[in-house]
C-alpha cells in the first residue's frame, strides 16, 4: 500500500498521475521552525517528521510505502509560511513583488517501520513581476492565497505574477514528480508499470 502523508489536494492530484491507488493519511506534527534553523534544514525535517509520524503507526507493515513532502517559500533566509490574514498576505506579496525567491520542496519516502528512508530537497527559483497594491487586494479576495505558502499558488491565478521559473514546476506546486519517481523506483515501484493499461 502507498500512503500519502498529506491532505493537500495538489499533492494528491500530482501523485495520482504516477500511481493508481494510494491512501491519504495526513500527518499531524508541530511545524514550528527551530531557532536558527536554516530553511533547507527545516523543509527536510518537516518531510521526514511527517513520514515518520505515519510510518510509526502500529497498523502498517514494512511493505507499506509512505510519501511525505513539505514546501516552503523562502525570501533571503526567511521562510514565508501561510498568511494569517489579509495584512500578512499583503506583506508577503509586497516583499515578493519584483523579486526572485526560492521554493524548497523536500521529499521523504520510507517504508512502515522505517527500515528504509530516502530524502531529497528540490530548490526552484521563481521571479515575480511587480505587483500593484490593487492586484494584491483583488487576489486576496479570490480566496486563493489564504492557505498557500508565500500567499500564492503558481498553478492558479498566482501564476500570473510569475515572470520566470528555474527548476521544477511540480515541486513548486507541492510534489516534485521527477524525484518522486526516482525515489519510488528505489522501493521497487515503477509509475510506468503502474499506469500500463491491461
Could you give the topology of this structure?
Layout: E1 2-4, H1 9-16, E2 23-24, H2 39-55, E3 65-75, E4 78-80, H3 86-96, E5 100-111, E6 117-128, H4 133-141, E7 162-166, H5 169-173, H6 177-186, H7 191-194
Parallel strand pairs: 1-2, 1-3
Antiparallel strand pairs: 3-4, 3-5, 5-6, 6-7
Helix pairs in contact: 3-4
In summary, what is this structure?
The chain has helices at 9-16, 39-55, 86-96, 133-141, 169-173, 177-186, 191-194; strands at 2-4, 23-24, 65-75, 78-80, 100-111, 117-128, 162-166. By secondary structure, it is an alpha/beta fold.
CATH topology: Maf protein
Mean pLDDT: 94
In the CATH hierarchy, what is the class?
Answer: Alpha Beta
N→C terminal distance: 20 Å
Main sheet, how many strands, which sense, barrel? 7 strands, mixed
User: How large, in whole angstroms, is the Cα Rg?
Assistant: 17 Å
Kindly estimate the percentage of residues that lie in beta strands according to DSSP. Answer: 15-25%
Outline type: globular
Helix content: 25-40%
- Indicate the structural class: alpha/beta
* Total beta-strand segments: 7
Order of helices and strands: EHEHEEHEEHEHHH
> Which regions are unreliable across 5 or more consecutive residues at pLDDT < 50?
none
CATH architectural label: Alpha-Beta Complex
Query: Helix count?
Result: 7
Provide the domain count.
1
